[in-house]
Write a structure and sequence with these properties.
Radius of gyration: 18 Å
Number of helices: 1
Strand content: 35-45%
Strand order of the largest sheet: 1-2-3-4-5-6-7
Structural class: alpha+beta
């Protein structure tokens, strides 16, 4: 393979990697509609409103969620990119080192690319 071909191929892979990473950044400040997903049932069960301001996030309850009215504040915190590569919602500095994602004591997380909020 020629040097030019190798350079072109490396440039292609680097561009692909950079584009892939750009999809996982915090969106610009604003209000969005995301799917509300429950890890216990391994599926999305409704839509919720999410407000993002910098690295702060507020999530409002979807319809038909037991014990809370639609539109009430359900979750809030600071967005942090976990060692797993997922964006989690933390409430303290200690949670930055949590190994647990989802499930019971786990951290709620958000998938910006698929517009999904996951909790247990």
């Amino acid at each position: 393979m020629s040097t030019k071909a190798v350079t072109t191929l490396l440039s292609y892979f680097l561009s692909f990697a950079l584009i892939g990473n750009s999809n996982t950044q915090i969106p610009k400040s604003g209000t969005y509609t995301y799917k509300y997903c429950d890890e216990e049932y391994s599926r999305c069960i409704g839509n919720c409103k999410i407000n993002i301001q910098g690295n702060k996030i507020w999530i409002y309850a979807p319809a038909n969620l037991s014990g809370i009215k639609e539109g009430e504040l359900f979750e809030s915190g600071t967005l942090f990119k976990h060692a797993s590569g997922k964006w989690v919602i933390i409430h303290s500095e200690e949670e930055k080192t949590s190994k647990s994602l989802g499930g019971g004591e786990g951290l709620p997380w958000i998938d910006f690319k698929r517009k999904q909020f996951w909790t247990f």
